Write the structure tokens for this entry.
Amino acid sequence: MEQELAFGGWAGILIMASYGLLMLGIGLFTFLRNRNLRNSNEEYYLGGKGLSIMVLFFTFYATQYSGNTIIGYAPQGYRIGFEWIQSITFMILVMVGYLLFAPRLYALSRKHNFITPSDWLDKRFRSKGITILGSFLMLYGLGNYLLEQLVAVGQGVSGLTGGTIPYQIAVVFFIIIMLIYSWLGGMRAVAYTDTMQGIALLFGVCILVIGSIIYFGGLPTSANYMATLSPEKLGVPEASGISGWFSMLLLTCIGAAIYPHAIQRIFSAKNESTLKNSLIGMAWMPFITTGVIFLVGIIGINAFPKLDVMESEQLVGMMANVIASQNAFFYWAMILLFGGIIAAIISTADSVLLTFSSVISKDLYGKFINSKASEHKQIIVGKISGILAVAVLLLLAWYPPATLYEIFVLKFELLIQIAPAFILGLYWKKLHTASVFTGMIVGTILASLMTFINMEPLGVFSGLWGLLVNLIICVCGSYLFQVTTEEQTEAERIIGL
Amino acid sequence: MKLIKEPIKNWKLWVVFGVLFLLSVPWYFPTGSYKPIILGIPYWAWIILFVSIAFSATITFAIKRLWITEEITTERKEDNKWNKN
């Protein structure tokens, strides 16, 4: 992804420094306006449960769409052609996933005052095992997700500046800024910066596609080219690819919706109509985000024919480079686009980091290690553990271990294993606690093992096999070992509305 | 807060989602076919695009009409919060 951009150099440094300063400014502003936020978990991690519609919408948006969506999705469209139109459905299904649990979970979060996703597990099952295991699965998935973003930000920045700013310096610069504004303003700062970052990303992507159409020719040109030279990119995909798509769609539907940082955004909504309207907006964003990026990939087929896999990874950089050299407007628009890509990576990373800290400070430290700690102290523990986590992940990013690299790939596979506890628990009072725990642990082990040995029977992903076994254990266990009437009444009291 | 309607309990909605889910992957067209191409997009990709639009429209409908609560507690809570500040 080392794009050699003609316009790199000082313009790149300038735009990055401005982005950095703007983010810092937002952090400082939030800090000065909300002095008490360091003393309350609700204030720090959920922005006082007061995020308004625009901020909530953009924080959902910037969290769900990372810089990887642009840098990685266009080349994918380039390589597989029109089959990649599925990336739109992909993102829409995440919203279907929300409908499975968001309405009730939101209502319950107001009834019981949840701060973190584990708060729900703890309230529902009152089992140390489930809370700790669930928290660890979340931390593990979040950690790997964060690692991915840290690698991406370095590559993005050094690509943007044509290598003027080395990879390591870029990462350290942005991470320090991210830590400072998260530290200063918590969720509020993260959500406000997300708003700025989301707007930059949307703007950049739209200009990129307009520029591509003007300078490389529109879709008909590209379609003619494909019809002559690579009709497989134009035709209906083969059946073997189709089962893979179905399982990928299902995995996204459940997995991405249950991302802990996404769930925390549900808790942060100011009120129900804010949440509903943000989610409605999100249901339409795939068309103007992944849809538009898909078009860029398709236009690229005609603009830069015959790139191999590695070369195609640099497609966005190559296209931006040509567009930027046309005139001053596109030059600055492309610089903004790259700033937007970096910002999008940072905005995903900051949300993940904040949720990571909240799970450590509130769920592990506050519940099990020092239950008498004040909220102020819990927040400090969260901040420090966040910094430590970033430090460890940075070391991993720069000195990747030679073996066992697979353990850093697992994220969806593990996160999805909390879904039965999370979703079934909302509706089914007869759900048996020990079976939920067993299902979670067996599903995790199975999904991890299958990923390590690269096993995907019937073209279905390992995470889904783990989830299936997990679900069977939960359901059969609940029928076999029936919960007592008292436990049912208690569950009814918790989930009843 | 009382949930009067929630999307998960509306079986018709999930039947619609199921049908859209099945239609969202182009298994029902002859492999490799792409004609006619309209505005540079093959016919089957148009249909997938329409299915996606139907998906988003159904989600919008579900959030608007099938997710209804009486929001009382929130407002009360918010008042308390302001008092605390």
Remarks:
- The two ends of chain A are 51 Å apart (CA to CA).
